[in-house]
């Protein structure tokens, strides 16, 4: 049995199938973790959803910001952006079961020392606290008020976690930390403007993985294609798996038992 984690698919279905073939992935015995953002930007978002859904219990995934955007458009009244490639999903005959399945997915998964999130793990949160906070959002997505939550989910404020936050402000910080985080300051406040490489950090901010933690999880994450799979000067064990397939880079899997990385090139210009 092999255990792999894969970075952001973002609609790169052909590359995903090629990577699974390269891994000789067998859903009967192997396991696959996906670090979120199955959809959007690439041409095969619907096929990616169907492919992962068909893997059943062999696959575990976390929600990324683009996955939540799809849910917000489909069920929260948000508008499509010009760069979105979600039309095929929204028009698909199997749209509702696929969206139901996606909406049930977590923001974080953990197994032993391994923790998988989409964007990162806020240093101010212990692993048990992070999983409990993720569960608050997951419960809201599974509840009757999911549509209202998806309508209010967007926003950059508040930018910093506080234990006394409640309501939509509390949930928004949790979502942003798990799905949008790149640079933070020493207090854990998020910057939302800088989205490029490490040299784009605003004054007083650094990548979240350069801040020490009190615990020592092995963190698997995606989201940040500009890192090109590297976390230089990390103060925590963090594996960046988004290697920019949708931007012409590559799609990368990591064998979670051996640490070996296997990549296939993008088929996009």
Please provide a written account of the structure.
- This protein has 269 residues and is an alpha/beta fold.
- The chain has a single domain (3-265), classed as Metallo-dependent phosphatases (Purple Acid Phosphatase, chain A, domain 2, 4-Layer Sandwich).
- It contains eight helices and twelve strands.
- It has helices at residues 13-23, 45-54, 65-75, 87-91, 95-103, 127-142, 146-152, 167-179; strands spanning 3-6, 31-34, 59-61, 108-111, 114-117, 183-184, 190-191, 206-207, 218-221, 237-240, 250-255, 261-265.
- A five-stranded mixed sheet has the order 3-2-1-11-12, with helices on one face.
- Helix 3 packs across helix 7.
- The longest helix is centred in the middle third of the chain and has 16 residues, at 127-142.
- It is globular and about 45 Å long.
- It starts with a strand and ends with a strand.
Outline:
Its EC number is 3.6.1.41. This protein is of the alpha/beta class and 269 residues long.
List its salient traits.
alpha/beta, Purple Acid Phosphatase, chain A, domain 2, 5-stranded mixed sheet, 4-stranded mixed sheet, 16% strand, EC 3.6.1.41, Calcineurin-like_PHP, Metallo-depent_PP-like, hydrolase, bis(5'-nucleosyl)-tetraphosphatase (symmetrical) activity
Distance between the termini: 35 Å
Q: Domains counted in the coordinates: how many?
A: 1
User: What's the level 1 CATH class?
Assistant: Alpha Beta
Quaternary: single chain
Protein name: Bis(5'-nucleosyl)-tetraphosphatase, symmetrical
Family: Belongs to the Ap4A hydrolase family.
Catalytic activity: P(1),P(4)-bis(5'-adenosyl) tetraphosphate + H2O = 2 ADP + 2 H(+)
Domain Calcineurin-like phosphoesterase: 5-121
